[in-house]
Design goal:
It is built from 32 helices and 28 strands. It is α/β, with parallel strands linked by helices. It has an 8-stranded parallel β-sheet with strand order 1-8-2-7-6-3-5-4, with helices on both faces. A 6-stranded parallel β-sheet has the order 9-14-13-10-12-11, with helices on both faces. A 5-stranded mixed β-sheet has the order 18-17-21-20-19. Helix 14 crosses helix 21 and helix 31 crosses helix 32.
Length: about 900
C-alpha cells in the first residue's frame, strides 16, 4: 500500500479559484449559493475523488467532512445524467457504523440534490436493520443510485442474486467514522465486504474514508484500501477554536467529607446546564448515565422535563425522540454514555461535560467536537474530576487534548470467526477458487498475514465442524463444500440461516422493559434476576417499579419520586489508553522529583524514602533564596503548566505529600509494591494486601494480575483475590503466600508470560463468555433461525456443550483459538502486560510495608470494598480510608 499525503493549502479560498472550478457548473453554482466557498477539507479532497483516486480525509468535526466525501459523487451523477449513461444501479455505497447516521445523511442529501436539480433523477435509499420488509423489496425492485447502509446490511446484500446486478457498477464507497471501525470486528467485517465488492466491479472502487481524531493516518489508509493499493491522505488542518477546562469540586481538601464531592459535582454541572442552551454530559458507563440523569433532574426540578438520558440500552424510538428534541433545541441537557460520540447531527450544543476522562485523547476530542458543531464556532469541553486521583488524570488529559496528542489505533488482527462468516458468503456468491479466496481475504488489512494453516483450519471447520465433530455432526455443521474446485454451499438451508445471522454483534442476556404500551429499552438478564416485584430502578432517566416478569420482557409502572436501585450495565470501566497512562506516569515522576527536592530542603524526608531518589539533585526552581534566585512554588508550576486553579494544585500536592509520609510516589522508572495488613476491627488477620503500582491501564493490569496470581499459585499454592485499576492492581493473599521482594521479582520475569496467561484462562469464565460470541459470529451457534430468534438459554446451552467438547478434544479449533485471542488481546491487554514484564528488570523496585492504605492506593482499595459503586460510594470509602490514615499517621506536617 502506498499512502501519499496531500500538502495543506490555505483554508477555504473562493470556490472558483480552487478545486471547485473542476466541478460541474450546476454543482459549483449550488456550492456558491449554499455555502459561498469550499472548506479546506473539501478543497483538498475533491481533486482526488474527481480523478478516481482513493482518499482518506482526516479533519475536525464540523469541517464539512461528509460533504467533502459526497461532492465528487454528486458531480459524477450529474455528468452521467447529462450524458444519458446513468442507469438504475447503485453508483455509491455510503457505510456508517451507526444506523442513525444513515438517516441524517439521507435528510442532508435531499437539499443538495434539489439545489443541483437532481431531486427527481437521483434516488437515495437506506438499507439497515431497521428497514422494513416492504422497503427492502422496493429497494431491490428499483435500486437507488446512492445506498446508505451499515457493514452488516452490506454483507446481507452481497451474496443475494437479486442484488448482483444492482451492485455491479458501484464506483464509490464512502466509509464514515472510519476510526470507530479501526480496532474492532465490525471494521474487519466491513473490509472483507469491500474486497468481495471490489472483485465484482471491473473498474474498481474509489474508496473514501472519513475520520476525525485518529492516528497514525497511513495505517488507517491501509485499513481503508487494503493491501497493494494507493491511497491519498488528506489532513485538513482547519483548527477550530477548542477550549478544554478541568472542573473539580475538590478545594483545598483532597479527601472531602462523605458525599461532599458528589454533591458538589452535581451543583457545578447543574450550574453549567442553567447557564447554557444545550449541554451534553458524557459518562463512561450506562449505569453512570442513569445515575447522573436522575441527580441532575433532582438538582434542577424546573428543568427536569428538558433533561434526558441516551444510551444503547434504550429502545431505538426513545433514542431517536431524544435526538430529535436535542436537534430542535427542546432539551437543555442530554446525559449519555458513548452513544452520541459519533457524527449524528445533534444541532447546536454549547458545551460538553465529561464525568472523569474518557480514558483516551481521541475519544476526548470526539466528545468535545460535539459542541460548537460548525466551522466558525468554538468547541468547549469540561472534564469533571470526582476525586484527587481523577483530577491528576484530568489535567493530563486536558493538556494532551489541547495539543491533539493521539494514541495510535490498534487494528484487529485475523479474527477467524469473521473469516468463517465471510467464507460462507463467498460460497453463496459462487465462483471462488481457493486462489480467489486467498487473494480476496489477504487483500483486507486485518487478514494480510493470514497463514495457509489458519485458512485450512477454518475451511475444515466449515466443511464439517472440525476434527472433533465432523464424524457425527457433519450435516449439522457443514456449511460449505467444493464443487469443481470452487466454493459452494450444500443446500438452501445454509443460505437462509446465513442471511439471518450476518454480523459480529452477538446476542447477550438482555430483557426488554415495557412501560404501558411502550418499550423503554433493555436491562441485563443478570440484573433482572436480582429483582423482585415491587423493586424500583431507573431507565431512560425515569424511576419505574417492577410489576410483572416474563420470559423475554418485564413490565413496569411509573414510580416518580421513589428511591431507585440503578442497574449496572456495562459495569467494566473503559481502560486507560497507553498514551494517557504514560503521561500520567510522567506527571507522577516529575512531581516525585520536584517534591523530593522540596522535602529534602525542608528536612522532612520520610525514613522510607532515604534511598537513591532522596539523593537526587534538587530542581533549581525549588531551591530557597539562599541558593540564589527567586523560589518558585510547586503549586505555581502546576497552575501554569496545566491551567488549573491554585486550590486544585494544592490539593494534588497535599495528596502527594501524604503519600510520601509513609511510602513513595509511583513513577515511570520505579516499581512500587506496598504491603499492608489490615488490623481494623473485623478484618481477617490472615490476609495480606499487596498493592502493585504498575501504571499501564486497566486492561493490561487485568492481564498482568492474572499472570502473577497464576504464578503465585504455582509457586506456593492457594488462590488469590485480585482487584484491578488503571494504575495498578491489588493481590489479597493468605499469610503463607506472603513473599519477600526477591521472590516477587521471580514472579515478574517475562519468560513464558503468554503460556502462563493461557493457563490462567483455562478454566476462566472470560474465555467461555468470549466463545459464546465467537460461536455466533462464526455461525457455529446461529443466534437466529429463519423466521424466529432463538432463546438465549438455548444459545448458552449449545455454546456450553461445544466449548467443553472443543476444550477437551480439539483445543486448536479456530473458534476456540479466536476465543482465547479475544480474551487476551481485546478484553485483556496481554501485549502491554508483557511489555511491562520486559521492563521490570530495568526498574528500581521498592517493597514498602505500610501501616495504612496509602493515598495512591485509596482508589484500588475502595474498588475492592465494592466494585462498581455509585459515584458517592467510593468517596465515602476514600473518606473512611483518609480518617484511618490520619489516625495512624498523626496530623500533617
Amino acid at each position: 500500500m502506498v499512502a501519499r499525503r496531500s500538502p495543506a493549502k490555505s483554508p477555504a479560498l473562493p470556490s472558483d479559484e480552487t478545486a471547485g472550478a473542476e466541478l460541474h457548473p450546476r454543482v459549483r453554482r449550488w456550492i456558491k449559493k449554499a455555502f459561498g466557498k469550499l472548506t479546506q477539507a473539501q478543497e483538498l479532497t475533491l481533486p482526488h475523488i474527481l480523478a478516481g483516486r482513493s482518499v482518506l480525509l482526516s479533519s475536525p468535526t464540523g469541517s464539512g467532512k461528509t460533504l467533502a466525501g459526497f461532492l465528487g459523487v454528486l458531480d459524477h451523477l450529474q455528468r452521467a445524467h447529462e450524458a444519458g449513461t446513468l442507469k438504475p444501479r447503485i453508483q455509491c455505497v455510503y457505510v456508517s457504523p451507526l444506523r442513525a447516521l444513515t438517516y441524517d445523511i439521507q435528510k442532508n442529501l435531499l437539499p443538495a440534490l434539489k439545489g443541483i436539480g437532481l431531486e427527481d433523477i437521483v434516488r437515495v435509499g437506506t438499507r439497515t436493520g431497521d428497514t422494513t420488509a416492504s422497503e427492502r423489496a422496493a429497494l431491490k425492485r428499483k435500486p437507488p443510485h446512492i445506498l446508505l447502509t451499515t457493514p452488516e446490511s452490506l454483507a446481507i446484500l452481497l451474496p443475494q442474486a437479486g442484488w448482483a446486478e444492482a451492485l455491479s457498477e458501484v464506483r464509490f464507497v464512502i466509509v464514515d467514522e472510519l476510526h470507530a471501525l479501526a480496532e474492532n470486528k465490525r471494521g474487519a467485517h466491513l473490509m472483507l465486504c469491500l474486497e468481495r465488492l471490489q472483485r465484482r466491479v471491473p473498474e474498481g472502487l474509489t474508496r473514501i474514508g472519513l475520520s476525525a481524531t485518529a492516528a497514525p493516518l497511513p495505517l488507517l489508509a491501509e485499513l481503508l484500501v487494503g493491501q497493494g493499493r494507493v491511497c491519498e491522505i488528506v489532513e485538513a488542518r482547519m483548527e477550530r477554536r477548542r477550549r478544554v477546562e478541568v472542573l473539580s469540586p475538590i478545594r483545598r481538601d483532597p479527601y472531602p467529607p462523605s458525599g461532599y464531592t458528589a454533591h458538589r459535582v452535581m451543583q457545578d454541572i447543574a450550574g453549567i446546564v442553567e447557564r447554557s442552551r444545550n449541554v451534553i454530559v458524557f459518562c463512561n458507563t450506562r449505569s453512570g448515565t442513569e445515575s447522573i440523569t436522575l441527580r441532575l433532574k433532582n438538582a434542577l426540578p424546573k428543568l427536569a422535563a428538558k433533561i434526558e438520558a441516551h444510551h444503547a440500552s434504550l429502545d431505538r424510538d426513545v433514542r431517536l425522540e431524544v435526538e430529535d428534541k436535542l436537534k430542535n433545541g427542546e432539551l437543555r441537557a442530554v446525559v449519555c454514555s458513548t452513544s452520541l460520540e459519533l457524527g449524528v447531527d445533534i444541532g447546536s450544543v454549547d458545551c460538553v461535560v465529561m464525568i472523569s476522562t474518557p480514558k483516551g485523547i481521541s475519544r476526548a476530542l470526539q466528545r468535545i467536537g460535539r459542541s460548537g458543531h460548525s466551522i466558525h464556532t468554538e468547541s468547549h469541553g469540561i472534564l469533571v474530576a470526582t476525586n484527587v486521583n481523577d483530577l491528576m488524570e484530568c489535567i493530563v488529559c486536558a493538556e494532551m487534548t489541547r495539543a491533539v496528542r493521539l494514541d495510535a489505533v490498534r487494528p484487529l488482527e485475523r479474527p477467524l470467526d469473521v473469516l468463517a462468516q465471510h467464507l460462507v458468503g463467498m460460497a453463496m456468491e459462487g465462483g471462488y477458487t481457493r486462489e480467489d479466496v486467498v487473494e480476496t481475504v489477504r487483500a483486507a488489512f486485518a487478514f494480510r498475514d493470514l497463514t495457509e494453516a489458519e485458512l485450512d483450519r477454518v475451511l475444515n471447520y466449515l466443511e464439517g465442524g472440525g476434527r472433533s465433530l465432523e464424524r457425527q455432526y457433519r450435516e449439522n455443521f457443514g456449511k460449505i463444500l467444493w464443487v469443481d474446485d470452487k466454493l459452494a454451499i450444500p443446500n438452501k438451508k445454509v443460505e437462509r440461516e446465513y442471511l439471518v445471522n450476518i454480523g459480529v454483534i452477538h446476542t447477550e442476556g438482555t430483557i426488554s422493559v415495557i412501560l404501558g404500551k411502550r418499550r423503554l429499552g433493555q436491562v441485563e438478564e443478570s440484573f433482572v434476576k436480582r429483582l423482585k416485584v415491587g423493586d424500583i430502578f431507573v431507565l431512560a432517566g425515569r424511576m419505574v417499579r417492577l410489576v410483572e416478569t416474563g420470559v423475554a420482557e418485564i413490565r413496569v409502572e411509573d414510580a416518580t419520586g421513589k428511591l431507585p436501585t440503578v442497574p449496572s450495565w456495562n459495569a467494566n470501566k473503559m481502560p486507560l489508553a497507553s498514551g494517557l497512562a504514560h503521561e500520567v506516569a510522567l506527571l507522577r515522576t516529575e512531581l516525585a522529583r520536584r517534591m523530593m527536592g522540596e522535602l529534602e530542603a525542608g528536612g522532612m524526608l520520610a525514613g522510607a524514602l532515604k534511598g537513591p531518589e532522596a539523593t537526587g539533585t534538587v530542581a533549581p526552581h525549588l531551591r530557597g533564596p539562599e541558593a540564589g534566585g527567586t523560589p518558585v512554588l510547586l503549586s505555581d508550576w502546576l497552575v501554569e503548566r496545566f491551567e488549573i486553579s491554585q486550590t486544585n494544585a494544592e490539593a494534588i500536592l497535599r495528596h502527594c505529600r501524604n503519600q510520601l509520609r509513609v511510602s513513595r510516589i509511583p513513577t515511570f522508572d520505579t516499581f512500587l509494591v506496598e504491603r499492608f495488613v489490615d488490623e481494623s476491627p473485623g478484618a481477617d488477620p490472615e490476609l495480606v494486601h499487596f498493592f502493585f503500582h504498575s501504571l499501564i491501564g486497566r486492561s493490561a493490569n487485568d492481564a498482568l494480575s492474572r499472570i502473577i496470581s497464576h504464578r503465585l499459585k504455582e509457586a506456593v499454592g492457594g488462590n488469590t483475590m485480585v482487584t484491578i485499576d488503571d494504575y495498578g492492581f491489588l493481590l489479597t493473599v493468605k499469610s503463607f503466600q506472603d513473599l519477600e521482594l526477591e521472590a516477587w521479582k521471580e514472579l515478574f520475569l517475562p519468560e513464558h508470560a503468554e503460556r502462563d496467561m493461557h493457563a490462567a484462562l483455562e478454566h476462566s469464565e472470560l474465555v467461555k463468555w468470549n466463545f459464546r460470541g465467537v460461536a455466533q459470529t462464526g455461525l457455529m451457534v446461529p443466534r437466529n433461525r429463519p423466521g424466529k430468534e432463538r432463546r438465549l438459554k438455548e444459545l448458552r446451552w449449545n455454546a456450553e456443550i461445544l466449548f467443553r467438547v472443543l476444550t477437551e478434544h480439539e483445543p486448536d479449533h479456530p473458534m476456540l483459538v479466536q476465543s482465547y485471542r479475544e480474551a487476551t488481546h481485546t478484553y485483556l491487554d496481554l501485549p502491554r502486560a508483557v511489555e511491562f514484564l520486559q521492563r521490570t528488570a530495568g526498574l528500581e523496585w521498592h517493597l514498602i510495608p505500610v501501616p495504612v492504605v496509602t493515598p495512591f492506593s485509596f482508589g484500588i482499595f475502595a474498588s475492592k470494598i465494592k466494585e462498581g459503586m455509585m459515584m458517592e460510594d467510593p468517596e465515602e470509602a476514600i473518606e473512611r480510608l483518609w480518617r484511618e490514615f490520619e489516625r495512624k499517621t498523626g496530623p500533617e506536617r
